[in-house]
Structure formats: structure tokens, C-alpha cells
Amino acid sequence: MKTQIAQIEMAHGAGGKATRRLIEGLIVPALANPVLEQLSDSALLSINGTRLATTADGFVVKPLRFAGGSIGSLAVHGTVNDLAVSGAHPIALMATLILEAGLSGEILEQEIDAMAQAARDAGVSIVGGDTKVVEHGMADGMYITTFGIGALDERLTLGPHVVRAGDRVLLSGNIGDHGITILLARGELDLEAQIQSDSRAVTPFVDAICTAAAAGLRWMRDPTRGGVASALNELARDCGLAIVLEEEAIPVRDEVRGACELLGLDPLHIANEGQFIAIVAPGFAQSALEALRAVPGGEGAALIGTVEAAPSGTVLTCTRYGGTRIVDMLVGDPLPRIC
Amino acid sequence: MKYVDEFRDPELIATVAREIERIVDPARHYRIMEVCGGHTHSIYRHGLKNVLPENIQLVHGPGCPVCVLPMGRIDDGLSVLDRPDAVLTAFGDMMRVPGTKGTPLEYKARGADVRMVYSPLDALRIAQREPGKHVCFFAIGFETTAPSTALTILRAKALDVQNFSVFCNHVTILPAIRAILDSPDMRLDGFIGPGHVSTITGCRPYEFIAQHYQKPVVISGFEPLDLLQSILMLLRQLQAGESKVENQYRRIVPWDGNRAALLAMADVFELRPYFEWRGLGFISQSALKIKASYAAFDTEARFELPGVRVTDPKAAQCGEILKGVLSPPQCKLFGNACTPEHPVGALMVSSEGACAAYYKYVAR
Predict the structure, then answer these.
(1) Are the Cβ atoms of A261 and B109 closer than 8 angstroms?
(2) CB-count exposure of residue B354 (10 Å: 0-12, 13-18, 19+)
């Protein structure tokens, strides 16, 4: 056996170290090709001189509906966002529905409507797909997988290889809303909070930042599973530099902080579905920030840190008392700590 | 955020840090043990070491209930899953802790019915909802969580729930502290006392440390300001040549503890003659057992468990780290053979373990 993976665990899907090992240890070597090996949110292709971004995504959220969204809208937002942070204008999506026998027609209709609405809002068409039905008990109501295609913005050159020491880290808004909303919506923890998922298309924000600072934009990523910590650890590793965050500058709602404090979780590890991180050259940081803040819903954007030369491959946080600590990738699924 | 931000105020913290700097004796090396794993986690998470003078060394104590649980006990708990009707419930803390044949999460991935709960009462509710199953709650923790287990057993008895049992691994903190104090290589100057445990026990049980061993104890909260103030209070006692028990965490910890919780514990539990602590070995009267009158809810009384002892690899130096003789990176296995993803020793197991906290936040 080529991999060290004895069996698939939930951690392999959590977006942290185990996911990375699964992808790099098994999938990439087996399918080896230069596009795949980039391991970015979208695969970049050039067809007769036209540069395209393509992406695929799967949605298995439980429960299907939650405060601030549902699996249908999430599927559209997640796919559109992967294209947008790759520097592409989303053009079209495809969607495959895996339906469980017994799913109510009403719920399915609501989710198709949610997909249609989210696609209209994001300015993309859903141009095809597939439907499959599995036996009762074989899926949590429904799963959705998507494919998306977009045209690359020719003004942009993005990637870890263009990130330089001195660049600034820009975050589009509050973190942790989606992950904590889902955790609470599962009803396993006797906790309630007035929060909702941040699920949204980030295209208006990416458009604004491209208009204001295209020449200074180095790298973007939507910090979904594994959170901001995992996204930035991947960047630090890929560019061989250090990312130093200022703890105080990272926007987190009190409700999310409170839930994280109670459960022993770190907001930096919690999933987001409507935010993105951008690395911006220092001379463009302020104009990029102002452009984001000018878009409705972007008021919470903040500069949260700086790229530095050392320690290479590491993400650090400066605590507000002058201490520092390492911000690691997520290990396994985030689990509440009790005792 | 209320009750949190006040205790993370950078200005107040700078003020206390300056006061520590002012009174500390530069010629002396201070070794202070924070007993509780929650404190260890908070110290690393907030980077407090950088705020303290270099001659104050914080030594991480045995107060992580997940870390000190021997692997054989984890195997015993997981063996319940051999029964086809079994549901094993546990706190999130336990889910990634390895037994010899895998972690509870790995058992779950193989199809076993393992469920994470937030309270033992949730486990009891599952038993009521699913009468065809036997629901076992894998109980861990110090005096912090033992009362909720006791109250759940009392409720199970009152409701006559017959398909529910508790695999009891509750331990008590004081015998472990005494074992450390009695250890010949003990070189500690004072203790940051556990906060959450003391909400139940109160402050009196620590008096033997101050009186018999002449070491100061300050019961502390978990926020950065709490911890720095507690260190300042310890230094003041040391400068004055005093040793007494003080309560820094007065907003939560009553001097006499929580009487109702202590009564519930006394009703349901008795002391085990001895119990094995991972890294520390056997310590007498250091753990709780469910009394015979509640045997119907005691997993160990109801089912035959293997009860096999599993020793840690000799190369792991958990005991030395627990006693403060070594710091985490001084262990030969730290960061190479022993990591949070593949823990070999006790202290790498839970995020509150000293090695896991060090690995996660400081260096690897």
C-alpha cells in the first residue's frame, strides 16, 4: 500500500492535516499532472489562448437548512467562491444531485429554488448536471456536487510564488459564523446563539479589490473547512515565508468567540462560507481595504497581519500582551473540550 | 465579551507584569507548577511566557484528566462496543485518545456506535430514547465533572433507566499533588491551584500543601490577568517567606466549595484503594468508584471488562515532565515519534496536555 491511511476517518474530510495527507499522499501521485499539482482552489487551463479556471466541489452539510442558508445556496456560493478567489469571473456551473429515497418533494423543491436564487444573485447560470437516487439510509437527505467554470481576469497574477515579505494579509470580514452556526444547528450541544451562516458569493468583494488593487494582489483563498489557520498554513508552506497575525485585528463576533471559549475551539480553525483572505502588496493594502469596506457587507474587512521572511513556513499570532504563539493547521475535526 | 475581555485587558496585564518584574528576585530561579491543564493551555495560547521574567519557570502539572488515563482503561471502555447493542458516549476530549486498537473516532469510522455528548445527562437521554440499546457513558475528569456524573446516576436511578451505565474514570487531584510533592526529584516553589476543580472542592483541601510542605498555593482563574495576578500573589508570599492558600478566583470559587455537589459525589462514589495514573504510576486513594448501591449503573460491575494493563513505551518521559523535572522539548520523543496526531505519551494526547500545548503553540 502506498499510503499510511488504514481507513478513512472523518478527519480526512475536515480540511486540515489529514485531508492534506490524503490528497498529497494518494490522489496527487496517482493522477499526477502539472495542473493538479498546483493544488489551488481551481484548476487553471488554457484553451486556444483563452485562460479558464475550473473547480469541483461537494456538499454534504447536515442539517440541510440552517440559519443564514441551506445546502442549495451553499453549493452555489462555495463553487462561485472557489472560482472568484482564483481570480476568475464565474461563467457557468453544473450540479449533480444525490438524493436519498424518502426525501420530501417539498424540501427538494426548496433547495432547487435556493440554488436558482443564489445563482441569479451571483450572476451565473447552472447549465447542466445529473441526478441520482440512493436507497433510504444511504445519504443525509441529499448531497450536491458541483462543477464551475470561469474566465480568468487577465490583470491578475496570483499564487504563492508571487507573495513577498512585507505583503499584508487582508480578511473580508467576521470569521467562524458558518462553522459555529452548523455546530449549533445540529442540536447536539445544548447551546443557542443569535448567529447565522455567512454563506454568500464573494464575487462583489473580489471585483472591488481587483478594480482597486489588481497590480498589488498576490494570492486569495476562501477559508472554508479548516478555517483561516489552515488556509494560511498552506500559504506559508507553499511560499516558504512566515505569516504573522495580530490577534486583536482579527474580526470575530462575540457570539462566535463565546461559543469557541465555551467549547475550547479556536475561531481560526472554524469554517467560513462567505469570506476570503487576500495577500496584498504593502502599497496597495490601504486602497484594497477601503474598496472592500465600500461594498455593502464588506464593512467588517480588516488588515490582520503581515508576511515576513522568517520563521519560514509558519503562521504566528501576536497576542495582545506582546506574546506570540504558533497557529497550527487544524488537526482532525474540531471537537468541543469539556473537562 | 463580558467576563472575558476584562481579564484580557492589555493595560492591566502590563501593569501586573511590571509589578512582577519589580518584586522578582533576579538572583533566584522560581519554579511554579500550574496544576490544571486548562491553565497550561491558556499560558501557551496567550503567549504568557513572553510576558514573564526569564527566571520564572512554569512547570506543567498533572491536571489533564485525559492525559493521565492509562491506555488499558481506554481499551476497557472501548471493549463495551463488542456488545452489538452498545452505544458508547463520551466528551469530545476523549474522541481522539488512542487505545491499543484505535481511538473512539476510529472505532466509529469502522461502524461502532460512538457518540459525542456535551453532558452525561445527554447520554442518559439517549438511553431513554433508545431502550433497545445499552448506553455507556465514558466518564472522565476531576472534581469538575464528577458531580454531573453523580447527578446523572442519581437521576437514572430515580427514573429507573435500566439500559444505562457509567464507566467511571473520575480522579481526584489532591493525591496526585501529594505524590509530586513526595517525589525525591521535586523542586517546586509554589502552586497555581486549579480553578474549576476548586469551584467544587473549595480551597481548604489544599491547606496541607501550605502547612505540611510549606509551599504557597494560589487558586487561579484561566484568563491571562488571572494567571499573572496569581503568579504575583505567589511571588509576594515567597518574598515574605510565607506559605498559605489564597484564592485569586473569588468570582467563581467559594472558600468552602459547592456543598450540594460534594454531597451528590459522596452519595454515589467511594474512593478506589489505588488507581494507575499514566506517567505517574499507581497512586493510592486517587480515583472514584461507583458505590455498590449504584452497581446497576456501573459498567465495571455489569460487564466483564478485559482490565489489561498497557504500559507506555519506556522512551516516553511523561512522568519526568509531569513532575517538572523535564520540559516537553527535552523528551527524546517530542515532535518526532510523539506528535498530537500520533501521540505516544500521555501529555501529547489532549490539547490540555503540556506536550500538546507546547507543540501546538510554541515549537515542534
Answers:
(1) no
(2) buried
Q: Which of B114, B360, B362 to mutate to test the interface with A (most CBs of A within 10 A)?
A: B360
Q: What are phi and psi of A197, to 5 degrees?
A: -60, 150
- Chosen for mutation from B36, B43, B351, B358 (greatest number of chain A CBs closer than 10 Å) is B351
pTM for the full model?
A: 0.89
Q: Three-class SS of residue A319?
A: coil
> What is the three-state SS of B268-312?
HEEECCEEEECCCEEEECCEEEECHHHHHHEHHHHCCCCCCCCCC
Dist CA B323 CA B282 (whole Å) = 15
CB contact under 8 A, A335 and B44: no
Residue type, B241: G
Cβ within 8 Å, pair A339-B95: no
- Residues in chain A with CB shorter than 8 Å from the CB of B47 are 318-319, 321-325
Type of residue numbered A33: N
pLDDT score, position B137:
98
pLDDT one-digit tens code per residue, A101-155 = 999 999 999 999 999 999 999 999 999 999 999 999 999 999 999 999 999 999 9
User: Which three cell numbers mark A247?
Assistant: 490577534
Chain B residues closer than 8 Å to A7 by CB: 106, 109-110
- Its ipTM equals 0.82
**Nearest-5° angle of CA B81, CA B343, CA B143?**
65
What is the Cα–Cα distance from B323 to A53, expressed in whole angstroms?
Answer: 56
**What is the pLDDT at residue B347?**
85
Can you list the residues of chain B whose pLDDT is less than 70? 364
- Residues in B closer than 8 angstroms to A8, CB to CB, are 109
Residues of A in contact with B6 (CB under 8 A): none
DSSP characters for B57-99? EEEEEEE-TTTTS-HHHHHHHHHGGGSTTEEEEE-GGGTT--B
